[in-house]
Amino acid sequence: MNRTIRIARGSIAIGIVVLGLKTLAWWLTGSVALLSDALESTVNVATALAALIAIRIAQRPADPGHPYGHHKAEFLSAVLEGVMIIVAAMLILQEAYHGIRNPRPLDAPVLGLAINALAGIVNAVWCGVLIRQGQRLKSPALVADGRHLLSDVVTSAGVILGVALAAATGHAILDPILAAGVAVNILWSGWKVMTASLGGLMDEAVSDDMLRDIRATISDHAAGAIEAHDLRTRHAGSMTFIDFHLVVDGDTPVAQAHAICDRIEAALKRKLDDAQITIHVEPEHKAKHSGVLVI
């Protein structure tokens, strides 16, 4: 079992523990805001499970039906997570509406808030692990899960502050109003998760910094060629796809042109562990005198 899958499984376990703590906090207090926090944790468990399934699918090798691999499965998971976050926000808004119409005083607020704070601390530690490891392992599903948990941590902090204020002042209506504010924040979080993932599904190019590195690497290792043009990139999960045209002298033997391509591919793969590179060799009359000039 690789590290990405171990982390994804850990997310499910952590999500269940946090959900249990937040549900207990709501049960003790009857707070609509704490119920909203617990509902978001329900989504955390479901999306952690979806992320694990997507990661397992994404790591399958290419096959005749999917010759480019299954890497985009992780982006689908992240989009699904965004949708589920939005659904959770709608449920919270419904509970907040009923709470505003019929506000009720809180029970055992101190104990309930303490338990909810413990759940928030667990989430804070784990979201840091997910974001760092997701970026290191190039896993969109883990990064999306971590960013969602980060929004949950911020939400929990706001909920604890707001519920404490409602309990201290005796203004019970502050509790459902706070829950409505939580729902709006969750909606924004879901939107950001979805838009970030849609870029990968739409074959978004690599970042400008990475593109500069790719261009420099081609230029530095293409001795014997004239230029490289029509450079295109896209990313799918941990995989980066690169293709371009390499112009060589028309009299260059096939074996020598192939050796240049091999040298460029090896250099690019040292920069990008998971890269699939396609190079189309062309004679010098196809030169465009643009793109990547060989130094």
UniProtKB/TrEMBL annotation:
* NCBIfam families, per the entry: CDF
Q: Where is the Cation efflux protein transmembrane domain?
A: 11-202
Q: Please provide the record's keywords in A-Z order.
A: Cell membrane, Membrane, Transmembrane, Transmembrane helix, Transport
Membrane topology type: Multi-pass membrane protein
Where found?
A: Cell membrane
Which gene underlies this protein? fieF
Keyword Iron-sulfur appears in the UniProt entry: no
Domain (Cation efflux protein cytoplasmic): give its ranges: 207-284
Q: Which InterPro entries match?
A: Cation_efflux (IPR002524), Cation_efflux_CTD (IPR027470), Cation_efflux_CTD_sf (IPR036837), Cation_efflux_TM (IPR058533), Cation_efflux_TMD_sf (IPR027469), CDF_Transporter (IPR050291)
Which Pfam family, any one, appears in the UniProt record? Cation_efflux
Q: Name one GO cellular component term.
A: plasma membrane
The record's comment on protein family reads: Belongs to the cation diffusion facilitator (CDF) transporter (TC 2.A.4) family.
Q: What is this protein called?
A: Protein p34
GO molecular-function annotation terms? cadmium ion transmembrane transporter activity; ferrous iron transmembrane transporter activity; zinc efflux antiporter activity
The organism named in the record is Paracoccus haematequi
One BP term from GO: intracellular zinc ion homeostasis
